[in-house]
Amino acid sequence: MTTTRREVDAVLIGVGLVGTVLGRELTRAGLTVVGLERGRPRDTVPDFQGPKMHDELRYATRLELMQDTAQETLTFRHTVRDTALPMRRWASFLPGTGLGGSLVHWNGQTFRYQEDDFRQRSRLVERYGRGFIPADVTIRDWGVSAAELEPHFDRFEYLLGVSGKAGNLNGRKIPGGNVFEDPRSREYPTPPQKEPYGSAIFRKAAEDLGYHPYPQPSCNLSQPYTNPEGLSLRTCTFCGYCERFACEHFAKSSPQTVLLPVLLNDRNFELRTGCRVLRINVDQSRTVATGVTYVDAQGQEVEQRARLVILGAYALNNVRLLLLSQIGRPYDPTTGRGVVGSNYAYQTMSYPQVFYDESVNINPFMRSGANGTVISDFASDNFDHGPLGFIGGAYIGEIMTNGRPIGFHPVPPGTPAWGAAWKKAVVRHYNHTSTINVHGGSVATRQNYLDLDPTYKDAWGQPLLRMTFDFPENDIKMSAYVTRKAIEIGEAMGGRLVAGSPRKGPYDITEYQTTHNSGGTIMGTDPSTSVVNRYLQSWDVSNLFVIGASNYPQNACYNPTDTLGALAYWSADAIVTKYLKSPGPLIRR
Amino acid sequence: MRAPIVAAMMGLLGVLPPAAQAQLVVPSGQSLRQRPPAAQLCVGCHGARGEADLATGVPRIAAQSRYYLTKQLDDYAAGRRRHPAMEAMARILSRDDRAAYAAYYSQLEAPAPGRSAGGPPSERGRLLATIGDARRGVQACANCHGPDGVGQPPTSPYLAGLDASFISADLNAWKGGGRSNDDSGQMTAIAKALPPEDIAAVARYYASLPPPRPGPPDIVQSVLHRRAAPGRIPSATQSGEPSRRDRAGVEQGAPMTGGTQGAGGGAATDAPAAGRAPEQPSSVIYNVPVRDGDPARGRRLVASGAHGCAACHTIPGIRAARGVVGPPLGGLARRSFIAGGLPNNASALVAFLQDPPAFVPNTGMPNVGLRLEEARDIAAFLSTLERARAW
Predict the structure, then answer these.
(1) How far apart are the first and last CA of chain B?
(2) For a tag on chain B, would you pick the N or C end, based on fewer CB atoms within 10 A?
(3) Rounded CA separation B351/B7 (Å)
(4) Rounded to 5 degrees, what are φ and ψ at A460?
(5) Residue A140: closest CA among A115, A114, A116, A120
């Protein structure tokens, strides 16, 4: 028995970063909007308060803020020849759930992708020639440029209050900032956070080697900040509980701290939590969405009719919902045809460690999720790939998001994995070890993709998403090269020992690496190779906009959130200024 | 009776020969079980065991973390935290003595206070302390001050069992800008969001809780001990292996706030360690031996009328000095306080005479423009005055 609710102007699937930004822009344009969030409502006060919020076992180990795998998970295999099996516990990546989405438990690392990333294929062809890109690599241009996104990056960063230092102000390079970044129109809203000791050592070493270190742009704020929406953030206290936790201090930018209170006060907006969308409904022609069908918190099935549908769930869930709704042609790796689920990409991480004498105290517990010092000298196409035989790169930084007691036990290679010798080594090295992050990008390939699992279903009887992924050879080569550079910096940092190895295959989904899954509903200018156009509007259903890291045709090395926020504002701007005036495809196919 | 105290003060002030000094001045972190001699200064207000009396507005300091107490004393000395008496106290103490006091009180066990004045705790106070107030944008005090207000040493002080009027006054100081010495500015933002009735409620709540017993010595104690000369960031290219001493220098810079304190990306490399904040902000000179003062010269200065002392004070032995605006100065040396706010000792008196309002802001005594030597001579003269008999 399905109840039908009165038609609204727009329905949001997911009320995280995308849902909150789109909800605000659409209600501001006068639309009535319903936001459907399958998780719980939650706010800084009372839900994120201490001492509970610093319970490492509850949040970091048992993953209280993440999707419940007993209800819904995904299945995984390395290649099409394998049989995929369901993940019983998240490990390699951690999809969040609940009001505010993943921005509640993120670290706050806030990078812009570069023009080299947005136009990766054509830039590489221009610089290195047509044969340079490996045959199985399916990287594409995004269909949007850094210059087009700049005003939207700017707006998003001023919403968040990002703490950082510009390296390129309107074309003028500024030492001490990221000199490789594309021109930005103004300085960051707040200055960088204080530099931790380990990061200062890294900066000195990187400078001495001729690189260009800069403070990592951070959404753990360096000072109080009131954003254009009138909401105020406070200063980070360096408590060390960012990633996998919510901030109790109003010091980390999240929907709850930067936008949700304004949206929830809007009479045109209605939030419904505990509502799980099963599918997007389309009419007979399959070119117009009529709304969505969801199961509410009481287990009742409800049809919510809407003139406009915004799909803004986590990247993987965006892909799954399109597949479940049979919108767009599913990707087939044997023919290379089809689009939904194609170009799934990840990121390629490695973590060399510098072990110091006991006279050097790193104080790893006294960090925030995003403070640290990084270089972009080996990111994107900022270095000559000609002689190297791979594409893409990594940023390198001394970034230690925390030194939590359960999770952080640095010991040098050769230490026993348990017992008295291990404990002794942990005590010896805990406060005298720096971790260097080699944060690498990921190319899209023909064989890595997402589709629906033929066997396993979720608690509502719908097929799980199936992931087929292994590290592309290109990315293994990239990691080998950039990790070697990181180890050289580590050796210049004056430690007693530098240990670490590049990322190697096969991909191990049981080890945490990063929650930067991308692709599957990619954007582009060609309907035969992309799911949405450059405004993130579905090629097939013109009143459906799909917004998420699922739009990225391949993954750059940077953390994806800033670019996602810019895309959300970019798309919202197109909806309000173009689509609402003349509903229909914004670009003819 | 009086001699040992004076000797103790003089030891503090560095006028005894080195050998005698070594016996009297407690080096930081040593002999914690014994009260440092000059901690007599603290006893008057904070109680014999740092327990303080209720409803005096003076906080309990027993078993507060050593790091926290040291930081507060250093901040008073540097003017980063304001309180007339405490600033003056902290300024006349050496850095080592401040650390010694902090170490001593951090390990003291004092009896819990009786029931707090100001009424029973309210549910509102408990809610603010443990959950916060979403409407006002105030997070729970417990985030930093621990469950039941037991603190999160070393950085965050305990609040349980502190005097309610002290907590109220302190929150009002944060609110009004009189106190702003937390690194994040969180306390200012929180206090500004709290109306008076909420401040009173949260103060009563914490006053009603039992204070914690001394914890184990701070984990950063060893770092604090290693305070040495300012250092530099190790230069990685010069030697590959920076010298031990260089590293230790940086390390002691700011042990609780993450090493070098450059605004991220700023030039932190050659900056002196941040822990060595200036302790003497004004032109007034502290820690001067008063023994060098000449009482006879001091008497002549007062009697000359050049500085107008006689207009306000009655001074034995000086005929013109019959003023009744300020207190009579006979027997000054026996008094506990100068101008009601400063501990009365020679060094404090010399400092006070040079700029009275700087030490006791609401004093009626103006700055009469005394130079250091003049102040020292006058202090030496004043300390000879017996209590007046005939008047």
Answers:
(1) 28
(2) N
(3) 19
(4) -105, 10
(5) A120
Position B229 confidence tier, pLDDT thresholds 50, 70, 90: very low
Residue A306 vs residues A10, A13, A535, B299: alpha-carbon distances, Å: 5, 12, 20, 94
For B139, which of A44, A197, A491 is closest by C-beta distance? A44
B216 touches chain A (CB under 8 A): no
pLDDT tens digits, residue range B239-252? 333 333 333 322 22
Judged by a CB distance cut-off of 8 A, whether residue A194 touches chain B is yes
The span from the CA of A382 to the CA of A149, in Å, is: 20
Taking only residues 134 to 153 of chain B, the set having a beta carbon closer than 8 angstroms to any beta carbon of chain A reads 134, 137-140, 142-144, 146-147
Q: Which residue type sits at A447?
A: Q
SS (H, E, C) A153-208: HHHHHHHHCCECCCCEECCEECECECCCCCCECCCCCECCCECCHHHHHHHHHHHH
Q: State the average pLDDT over residues B5-13.
A: 37
Instruction: Give chain B's length.
Output: 391
Give, in order, the Cα–Cα distances in Å from A190 to each of A194, A223, A227, A242, B285: 12, 7, 11, 19, 39
DSSP state, residue A499? E
ipTM of the complex: 0.88
Nearest CB to B132; choose among A45, A215, A493: A45
Tokens of B259: 């090493």
Please name the residues between 44 and 63 in chain B that touch chain A, using a CB distance below 8 Å. none
How many Cβ pairs closer than 8 A exist between chain A and B? 153
Tell me the C-alpha distance between A468 and A506, whole Å. 12
Place of tokens 């000072």: A223
Indicate yes or no: CB of B223 within 8 angstroms of CB of A366.
no
Interface residue B185 vs chain A (CB under 8 A): yes
Bridging pattern class, strands A276-282 and A289-295: antiparallel
Q: Which residues of A touch B133 (CB under 8 A)?
A: 45
Give the best residue of A208, A237, A248 to mutate against chain B (max B CB count within 10 A).
Answer: A237
| Residues 6+ away with beta carbon under 8 Å from A382 | A114, A116, A180, A376, A393
Contact by Cβ (8 Å): A434, A495: yes
Q: What is the DSSP pairing of strand A214-215 with strand A172-173?
A: unpaired
> pTM of the predicted model, to two decimals?
0.81
Task: Name the B residues in 288-347 with CB < 8 Å from any A CB.
Answer: none
